[in-house]
Specification:
Layout: E1 2-3, E2 6-7, E3 9-16, E4 20-28, H1 37-51, E5 56-61, H2 63-71, E6 75-85, H3 117-127, E7 133-137, E8 140-146, E9 151-157, H4 161-175, E10 180-185, H5 188-196, E11 199-210, E12 223-224
Parallel strand pairs: 4-5, 9-10
Antiparallel strand pairs: 1-2, 3-4, 5-11, 6-10, 6-11, 7-8, 8-9, 9-12
Helix pairs in contact: 4-5
């Protein structure tokens, strides 16, 4: 969205799960806040999602944004937290020195966590991005992607707390002093595993949905999908 020739607000829409869209990166320039720009850019994004044939829209909202989304008809699903490692290093988009993938899932033992055809296409698309790595252990896996300021972990799929912790430790070892961000729903087991691996929560959000019944947390707590930002 532009005003007086300058960008004052932005938003992204991307496919998410079956027939759904994900609304993200809703940003309003500080000087334009409180003037209806946020509501206007979200409304425009929802209109675009409808034109593209999406039947529902999901998002993760900050406490301030949640008020706007409630007025637009979104309903709460469950709380989500962003965690980070305590290191002070910044990723800066650099590549891993020893990447564990070459843009494909071929040759990786994913066991019972073999992704659906749609998820497989999405993961292999992400693996084409510069610096992205796939970490695996005993059929469990985690995707690690470079962002502007930190590495982003997700999706993560694991059957046990032990394998989940080992994937986290492997990611931390690869990233060294660089920070890692990871988004997940609130769960006591997840919280303990993340704290043990040296993560701390620093951003609290609410997963919301418009146009369908509420989204539910994964039945297995060690399953984590991409968060509200791509990094």
């Amino acid at each position: 969205m532009r005003a007086a020739g300058k960008v004052v607000a932005s938003a992204t829409i991307m496919p998410y799960l079956e027939k759904g869209a994900w609304l993200g990166m809703v940003l309003v320039h500080p000087e334009s806040r409180g003037k209806g720009c946020g509501k206007a850019i979200v409304s425009a994004a929802l209109e675009l999602a409808a034109k593209l044939g999406f039947s529902w829209v999901g998002l993760d909202a900050t406490e301030a944004g949640r008020i706007v989304y409630n007025k637009l008809g979104f309903s709460d699903c469950f709380p989500v937290q962003r965690w980070r490692t305590i290191g002070n290093g910044k990723c800066g988009g650099r590549q891993m020195e020893t990447p564990s993938s070459q843009g494909t899932l071929v040759g990786h033992n994913l066991g019972s966590f073999e992704p659906s055809p749609a998820d497989r296409l999405w993961i292999e698309h992400l693996l084409q991005e510069k610096g992205t790595s796939l970490l695996t252990r005993s059929g469990s896996y985690a995707l690690l992607r470079p962002g502007r300021e930190a590495w982003h972990a997700g999706p993560v799929k694991s059957g046990t707390a032990d394998d989940f912790a080992r994937l986290l430790n492997k990611a931390c070892a690869l990233c060294g002093e660089d920070q890692i961000y990871l988004d997940c729903f609130s769960h006591p087991g997840l919280d303990r595993a993340l704290e043990s691996a040296g993560f701390e929560p620093f951003r609290h959000l609410t997963r919301m949905v418009l146009g369908r019944d509420a989204l539910h947390e994964p039945e297995v707590p060690w399953e984590i999908y991409k968060g509200f930002e791509w990094g």
